[in-house]
Design brief:
single chain, alpha/beta, Aspartate Aminotransferase, domain 1, 2 domains, seven-stranded mixed beta sheet, four-stranded mixed beta sheet, 15 strands, 45% helix, globular
């Protein structure tokens, strides 16, 4: 197969092919909001389309490309692994690359974490955490927080706090209980029954970039210890430098029993995830030679994923990407909070490092409030598109609306520069300023989107 020739032959057909064979509803959405671009190349924090236009990627594949897209060192490591003709997935073996990557991961995790189970994704890592917790404690229930997102497979969906993802798939795994983030009394009421295997937590919730109240995580961890409930920290999005440290839980000094990792672990080039856990949990799950593969998979330890993981960790460490995330994130937060004082539609700016949420709220002025109410009558999530659509169409910046809330989420690659930050802040202020003129062109975007959605 000549891949370059194949792609060239079918250039321009991607949306028609995808609609015909994969997911036509997604293509309708892309066309409605003007995201139906034909990207042909990617490097670092930039995407390039067929016309040669450059786009600043502030989404990074939902947090996959911490090291930037197509990092040359990770590509080179994968190419070398292919050239060596290594004995991949023998299955009845203990592959060296898996042991090497596990050792590297354990070196950056708390000392109590000393085993690694490799998976293909974040949701699969969280499925393993649910199974391991139930087996290790001989308890069945799992607690999670409202707004939580831990994946979309059956077990992970059972601890998902977003109704739009659960709708149509229930009943799910029994015994999973959602608790309001910050409600210690509700947490203790559930855990004191001593039948909760685990509390699964995102250090920063991905769906809206929600952070816990001060002191909450430390108190929640103490309650878990008191009642014998395992603490599972989902670092699928917050881990590997995203928040300015190796892991998000480090900001609160937590000592988890299980940590799940994925997304950026391979630099975005090979699917990979990891469920990292204590020896105590391991000994209760893999309790005998007969149970040595009681939980397993086919591709989890594949050589290319392990090699990519090793290279990705090298890049993160040697290029100082966590420190860059902290510095660039502070520049973004400072700039956005300065705008918050000037523009009434910006209700809150929150986040840590390069994981930032900008929440918009009902304005005070009567004229703007009329536009706000009109847009919300059509669709409560539509206002967010008044921000992300012009950022894309007018400034070539890729962002996202977080779920069905009026929250714009920023997840840039950790390789962004001060120049990238300045460009984003300038473009963002231009878009927000336009939204403060009603009636005006920005609100016409909302009307146009609504009409295109109804036509589609």
């Amino acid at each position: 197969m000549d891949l370059q020739a194949l792609l060239a032959t079918h250039a321009g057909e991607q949306h028609d092919l995808f609609a015909a064979t994969v997911n036509p509803q997604l293509v309708r959405v892309l066309k409605t909001i003007g995201f139906d671009k034909e990207y042909t190349r990617a490097q670092g924090q930039y995407l390039f389309d067929a016309c040669g236009h450059r786009y600043l990627d502030f989404l990074s594949g939902y947090g996959v490309f911490n090291m930037g897209r197509n990092h040359p060192r990770i590509k080179a490591a994968i190419a070398q692994a292919l050239e060596l003709d290594l004995p991949n997935m023998v299955q009845m073996d203990a592959p060296l690359p898996a042991g090497l990557l596990a050792k590297r991961l354990l070196a950056i995790l708390p000392p109590a974490i000393d085993r690694v189970f490799f998976t293909n994704s974040g949701t699969e890592a969280n499925e393993a955490a649910i199974k391991f917790s139930r087996c290790a404690t001989r308890r069945s229930r799992i607690c999670y927080f409202t707004h939580a997102f831990h994946g979309l497979t059956n077990g992970s969906l059972s601890v998902n706090g977003n109704a739009e993802f659960r709708d149509g798939f229930e009943p799910l795994l029994p015994g999973c209980v959602g608790i309001p983030l910050g409600d210690l009394d509700a947490l203790e009421r559930e855990l004191r029954q001593k039948d909760v295997a685990a509390l699964i937590v995102e250090p920063i919730q991905g769906k809206g970039v929600y952070l816990p109240p001060d002191g909450f995580f430390a108190a929640a961890q103490e309650i878990c210890r008191r009642y014998g409930t395992l603490l599972v920290l989902d670092e699928v999005q917050t881990g590997l430098g995203r928040t300015g440290r190796w892991f998000g839980f480090e900001h609160w000094g937590l000592t988890p029993d299980i940590v799940t990792i994925a997304k950026a672990l391979s630099g975005g080039l090979i699917p990979v995830g990891a469920c990292c856990y204590s020896a105590t949990v391991y000994e209760r799950v893999y309790s005998s030679m007969e149970r040595c593969v009681v939980h397993s998979n086919t591709f989890g330890r594949n050589t290319l994923a392990m090699v990519a993981g090793l290279a990705a960790l090298d890049v993160l460490e040697e290029e100082g990407l966590a420190a860059n995330a902290a510095a660039r994130g502070m520049e973004l937060l400072d700039g956005l909070r300065a705008m918050q004082q000037q523009y009434e539609l910006i209700e809150e700016v929150r986040g840590i490092g390069c994981m930032i949420g900008i929440e918009f709220g009902r304005p005070r002025s009567l004229k703007l409030r009329a536009g706000w109410e009109l847009i919300h009558t059509v669709n409560r999530a539509l206002f967010g598109q008044l921000i992300v659509v012009p950022l894309m169409t007018d400034h070539r910046i890729l962002t996202q609306v977080a779920g069905h809330n009026v929250i714009v989420k920023l997840l840039p690659p950790l390789v962004i520069t001060p120049e990238d930050v300045r460009y984003f802040l300038s473009a963002f202020e231009t878009v927000v300023a336009a939204c403060h003129e009603f009636p005006g062109a920005a609100w016409d975007v909302g009307k146009g989107l609504a009409k295109r959605a109804m036509t589609a």
